[in-house]
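thought: user wants a sequence for this fold. calling inverse folding tool.
action: design(structure=
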């Protein structure tokens, strides 16, 4: 199978999904977008009460079920308070690296449906004014949103309909380079969610059936810890498709698919992980096996919820996670191939 012929489809759908603001708890538009794509391809598609999108693919054996999951919720911010000068103080949603947000453009979503633009800045934003402009801490006590409206007081901001609890979503800045890199915020995990959409497209175009009944699950609360808690009850195995880690004491490169043997929550299923390694060798898929030192996934939420399900984790190597992220198309395609191999499509 020529996976590379689907790279243009991946780029198109990745751009579209990454452009939709969808911080955890604010995923309705992203959920609908993914739902519409899967349904248009002809798959049975449903939304759960908490917002997960579950796509059911008939297998050659429907008496046994497995699932693949990726999350479409992202990191974000929420209005915490309004300063006397009319700036918005912030509370993090998930765990963004706040210093990387200094200078980022953002959208502020009000409860009434209005959307305002702004910029996330240090409270000492000008070198000509503030002696600590370069070294003031970049954290939630020392950064705020400057709204692109004429406001000079709490009352001015309130008159716009902005209040504590409103979402602040910052720009992904998605770029595909000629050298094959995807650089963007929120590759974790919209890059992998797009791989799931691409796999659905491949199965439709090539008239392929997985070995077992398969759920492709797009979860919406992973960044805050419970995305995998409400997956289908009949699954026997879960393959989490999330970002692979690149960096200190790790072997994975951005061009590879990473197979995670263990993360913060503990080891992944030994037999599943071994099978993924063997499949990579068999199909000449460029891979690395690593232990992630500061990481958890949909599998952790699944297990904490008491589900008797084996689980493993794979994903493209991603550099700069929770900041300005980057991966390579080779890593994405290697992940897609391993997903297909796991489902016995190749």
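)
observation: tool returned 346 residues.
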């Amino acid at each position: 199978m020529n996976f590379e012929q689907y790279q243009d489809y991946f780029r198109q759908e990745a751009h579209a999904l990454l452009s939709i603001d969808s911080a955890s708890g604010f995923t309705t538009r992203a959920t609908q977008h993914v739902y519409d794509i899967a349904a248009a391809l002809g798959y049975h598609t449903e939304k759960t009460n908490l917002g997960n999108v579950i796509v059911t693919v008939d297998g050659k054996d429907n008496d046994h079920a497995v699932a693949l999951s990726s999350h479409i919720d992202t990191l974000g911010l929420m209005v915490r308070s309004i300063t006397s000068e009319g700036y918005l103080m912030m509370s993090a949603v998930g765990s963004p690296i706040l210093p990387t947000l200094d200078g980022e453009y953002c959208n502020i979503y009000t409860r009434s449906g209005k959307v305002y633009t702004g910029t996330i800045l240090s409270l000492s934003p000008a070198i000509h004014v503030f002696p600590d402009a370069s070294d003031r801490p970049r954290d939630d006590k020392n950064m705020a949103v400057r709204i692109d409206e004429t406001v000079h007081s709490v009352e001015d901001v309130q008159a716009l309909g902005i209040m504590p609890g409103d979402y602040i979503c910052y720009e992904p800045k998605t770029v595909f380079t000629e050298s094959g890199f995807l650089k963007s915020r929120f590759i974790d995990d919209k890059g992998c969610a797009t791989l799931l959409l691409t796999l659905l497209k491949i199965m439709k175009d090539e008239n392929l059936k997985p070995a077992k009944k398969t759920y492709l699950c797009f979860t919406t609360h992973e960044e805050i810890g419970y995305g995998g808690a409400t997956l289908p009850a009949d699954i026997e195995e879960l393959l989490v498709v999330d970002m692979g880690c690149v960096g200190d004491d790790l072997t994975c490169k951005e061009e590879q698919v990473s197979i995670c043997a263990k993360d913060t929550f503990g080891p992944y299923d030994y037999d599943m992980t071994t099978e993924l390694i063997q499949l990579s060798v068999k199909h000449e898929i460029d891979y690395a096996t690593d232990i992630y030192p500061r990481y958890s996934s949909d599998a952790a939420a699944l297990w904490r919820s008491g589900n008797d399900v084996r689980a493993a984790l794979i994903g493209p190597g991603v550099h700069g996670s929770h900041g300005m992220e980057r991966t390579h198309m080779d890593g994405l395609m290697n992940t897609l191939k391993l997903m297909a191999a796991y489902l016995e499509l190749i």
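thought: summarizing for user.
answer: Here is the designed sequence. The helical segments are 7-18, 28-40, 154-159, 187-206, 270-282, 298-304, 329-342.
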